[in-house]
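Structure tokens please, single chain.
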Amino acid sequence: MKFKKKKTGKNKNYSISNKLRKELKSNDQFEFMLNNLSLEEIIGLKLELAAKSAGGMLYGLPIWFSLQNIVQDAVLKYAYSATGTKLEAGRFLGFNKDRFNKLIRKYKTDSYFEEKKDFTENI
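Here you go.
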């Protein structure tokens, strides 16, 4: 039997699911339904919905050429939520410390998980 290693470090409380639930963008039912879709179906549906809200087609957007950045950003966020520290996340993805730090700065991964202050609290 394998035991899951206890997460320690700054990333230990990071969870994309928990973040989206706090923002009321996700719940149990949504995640259950999403889990039954393939990544291809999710991406296709997301593009279709974006096109509908834009009134038709997404002309002029370099979607094809942006895919690498979109996928890398998503994988970095997952690595953060699946590991306990930045070092573990970098190792998980096969990066040395410098390369990993460069990518998390590029994609602003740290700030994604930081709780944003509600500006109306100070009013």
